[in-house]
């Protein structure tokens, strides 16, 4: 299995301070969405590959029952510390996301994705789709900010809207899949915001 599928690869990145995917804040596209009239009703949400927890903390701050999951110990420790410091109800678990299916079957109204799909080995993408489907309640939604860059190599591995549709459309209705203007400057034009509803 690829080195990037193991916790030590990502833990080392956190330890070395080379976690460039960490914005130090919640994902701008998510902030915009949750503060818009289209924001979904309050419910239970899991953030996959949550890193230091900024997105889960935003959900928690706004009243969602939020759980962040990552397998890098440093990331989870820092997320828990932030939650404690800000008296935020979001919870965090140190887990491999692919072990969640048996622990949390059909348990969430929403799954949130940002810089997780792009970080896993390419051959695990079909498994990732099945994971998200298994975690969601009937009619639950995947809310995602996909990294749709076209640079070679990775991680982060790029993707395209067509590939996203190919992977997800057999199991989800694609409600939204559009370029987002609400990206940090270094990712402008390289992200798509998506809402996908479980069939």
Automatic annotation (TrEMBL):
<dbReference type="InterPro" id="IPR008854">
    <property type="entry name" value="TPMT"/>
</dbReference>
<dbReference type="GO" id="GO:0008168">
    <property type="term" value="F:methyltransferase activity"/>
</dbReference>
<dbReference type="GO" id="GO:0032259">
    <property type="term" value="P:methylation"/>
</dbReference>
<keyword id="KW-0597">Phosphoprotein</keyword>
<keyword id="KW-0808">Transferase</keyword>
<keyword id="KW-0949">S-adenosyl-L-methionine</keyword>
<keyword id="KW-0489">Methyltransferase</keyword>
<protein>
    <submittedName>
        <fullName>Methyltransferase domain-containing protein</fullName>
    </submittedName>
</protein>
<dbReference type="InterPro" id="IPR029063">
    <property type="entry name" value="SAM-dependent_MTases_sf"/>
</dbReference>
<dbReference type="Pfam" id="PF05724">
    <property type="entry name" value="TPMT"/>
</dbReference>
């Amino acid at each position: 299995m690829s080195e990037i599928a193991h916790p030590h690869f990502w833990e080392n990145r956190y330890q070395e301070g080379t976690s460039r995917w960490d914005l130090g804040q919640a994902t701008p596209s998510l902030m915009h969405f949750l503060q818009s009239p289209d924001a979904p009703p309050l419910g239970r949400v899991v953030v996959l590959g949550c890193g230091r927890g900024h997105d889960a903390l935003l959900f928690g701050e706004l009243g969602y029952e939020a759980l962040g999951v990552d397998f890098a110990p440093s990331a989870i420790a820092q997320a828990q510390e932030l939650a404690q410091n800000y008296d935020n109800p979001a919870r965090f678990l140190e887990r491999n996301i692919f072990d969640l299916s048996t622990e949390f079957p059909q348990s969430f109204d929403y799954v949130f994705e940002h810089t997780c799909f792009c970080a896993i080995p390419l051959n695990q993408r079909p498994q990732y789709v099945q994971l998200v489907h298994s975690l969601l309640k009937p009619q639950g939604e995947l809310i995602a900010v996909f990294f749709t860059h076209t640079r070679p190599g990775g991680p982060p591995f790029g993707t395209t809207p067509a590939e996203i549709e190919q992977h997800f459309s057999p199991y989800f209705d694609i409600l939204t899949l559009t370029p987002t203007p609400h990206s940090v400057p270094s990712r402008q034009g390289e992200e798509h915001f998506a809402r996908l509803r479980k069939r």
